[in-house]
Design brief:
The structure holds 2 protein chains of 2 kinds. Helices cover about 80% and strands about 0% of the residues of chain A. By secondary structure, chain A is mostly helical. Chain A has one domain: Orthogonal Bundle (MetI-like fold). Chain B is about 35% helix and about 25% strand. The two termini of chain B are about 35 Å apart. Classes of the chains: A mainly alpha, B alpha/beta.
């Protein structure tokens, strides 16, 4: 059994590697074609560019500097959004008063795409960091809230009955049954929201900023530096993938009891 | 001997969506003595689980009362622990924490609930599986946890709702022996529900024979066979025929 899984893992890795390698090779040959030269940079140059930019600054700072700026924005907005989103979500999902008070506003806000907030954020908070925190906050908070509300709604009524049978008082039900029951769904929300936060920060940086990975791509575009544009895109993809992997690993540790955690 | 559980004239009528009503329990009366193993046996899907839920306080009767130690039952509580057919362990807790849950939530000290839970896990034969989550346990093992959990609430009465109905035949026989072994180690008053006559005869001190819809008590049969019982013994088979005939007889 263990052997089979390992074989499967090796096979998966092999095919994954092969598919990336093939795209790379195709890309390389395409970039050698005469009429593609201005549209596709040489992939080897792109990788070199990423390697060099770790040490040599582009604009104000190195690649890690840009990543640091983007991540700081993401984390500030995201952590705030998690705290507020989880509290509001529980209030809205568990209490009738909360639902009556918050549900209507929430339903309206939820249908607004996150980039629609950018102009307003700039008018309210200026072009500095605060507007970026706000955009990330508002877009991820609603995702987290949605998942917390669903998580609370999905708590199996029969668990509450069993808990009462075992001597749980009504005011203990929330902490001992509803909260742990909703954890996988909340975690799902945190996962989706982190992906969304990463996407949003890039968009916000492309609108107005002087540092960050989004800015890196935009600068590449303005200076017609295709290599820089592609390097930026690849870095964004790699970071997004890493964030997703970290969240999945955390989930398998925290929600080991859940099917989704397997 | 005094009766610990008294079922007094229970009626239950369900109102369907279309406004028509359906009686599932009709004037159900019986009493359970302390440390007695009572099996409620009846055919089909009608009424038995509803009766158990009413005793447990998970469902409301249409009329009649349930008394436990002469106290009127109004809601669910740990004096009547249920072992469910679909087990209903908390999936986010390990086997040990599931068993500990009731004593913990009711404010017992950590040493107390931990040592009690360990004792009952060992009693049901799950030593070594304390830290396993329910998802990692087989159906039979999960139901053992369910039984340990019910024991660990220190109930006056244990209510078992077709606890082995979802298990395969082999595991079912094994679990029947296990339940008898566990009950011999630590006496409890048990109300056990089944639609399997063989299971009823194998376990019961007395069998409450119920009719089909609306369910009412046909007869209460005392079973004087010694344990361990032989399912092919002539007296066993005679009782089996007799009780089956009671159920099939039209009123």
């Amino acid at each position: 059994m263990a052997l089979k899984i390992r074989n499967e893992g090796v096979r998966k890795f092999f095919w994954g590697f092969l598919s990336i390698f093939l795209v790379f090779v195709l890309w390389y040959f395409a970039s050698q074609l005469d009429h593609m030269k201005n549209l596709l940079p040489n992939p080897i140059n792109v990788i070199k560019f990423i390697g060099i930019s770790v040490i040599a600054p582009i604009g104000k700072t190195t690649l890690f500097g840009h990543l640091y700026w983007s991540m700081t924005r993401v984390m500030t907005g995201y952590i705030l959004a998690s705290i507020v989103g989880i509290i509001l979500g529980f209030f809205c999902g568990w209490s009738k008063l909360g639902s009556a008070l918050i549900k209507p506003i929430y339903s309206v806000l939820r249908s607004i795409p996150s980039i629609a907030w950018i102009p307003l954020a700039i008018l309210w908070f200026g072009i500095g960091e605060n507007s970026k925190y706000f955009i990330i906050f508002i877009s991820t908070m609603l995702i987290i809230m949605t998942n917390v509300i669903d998580g609370v709604k999905d708590v199996d009524e029969s668990y509450l009955d069993v808990a009462r049978m075992l001597g749980t008082k009504e005011n203990q039900l929330f902490l001992h049954i509803v909260l742990p029951c909703a954890v996988p769904q909340i975690f799902n929300g945190l996962q989706v929201a982190l992906g969304a936060a990463w996407a949003t920060v890039i968009a916000a940086e492309m609108v107005r900023s002087s540092k960050g990975v989004g800015w890196l791509i935009l600068m590449g575009q303005t200076s017609m530096n295709m290599t820089q544009v592609f390097a930026g895109i690849i870095v964004i993809g790699l970071v997004g993938l890493t964030l997703a992997l970290i969240m999945r690993w955390l989930e398998s540790k925290l929600c080991a009891w859940n099917i989704r955690g397997k | 001997m005094s009766s610990i559980l008294k079922i007094n004239n229970i009626n239950k009528i369900f109102i369907n969506n279309n406004g028509s009503d359906k009686a599932v329990l009709q004037n159900v009366n019986f009493e359970v003595e302390e440390n007695e193993f009572i099996v409620v046996f009846g055919p089909g899907q009608c009424g038995k689980t509803t009766l158990l839920n009413i005793i447990a306080g998970l469902e409301k009767q249409s009329s009649g009362q349930v008394f436990i130690k002469d106290k009127l039952v109004e809601k669910a509580g740990p004096d009547r622990a249920v072992v469910f057919q679909n087990i209903q362990l908390f999936p986010w807790l390990t086997a040990l924490k599931n068993v500990e849950y009731s004593m913990k939530i009711r404010g017992f000290s950590k040493e107390e609930y931990h040592s009690e839970a360990m004792k009952y896990l060992e009693l049901v034969g799950l030593k070594g599986f304390e830290n396993s989550y329910p998802i990692k346990l087989s159906g039979g093992m999960k139901q053992r946890v369910g039984i340990a959990r019910a024991y660990c609430t220190k109930p006056d009465v244990m209510l078992m709702d077709e606890p082995f109905g979802a298990l395969d035949a082999q595991t079912r026989y094994l679990m029947q022996d296990e339940v008898l072994r566990i009950c011999n180690t630590e006496k409890r008053t048990i109300v056990f529900i089944t639609n399997n006559i063989e299971e009823a005869l194998y376990l019961a001190d007395r069998i409450v024979v119920m009719s089909d819809c609306p369910s009412t008590v046909k007869e209460v049969v005392k079973i004087d066979l010694t344990h361990p019982r032989d399912r092919t013994d002539s007296e066993f088979l005679r009782l089996r025929k007799e009780i089956s005939a009671m159920v099939n007889r039209k009123r």
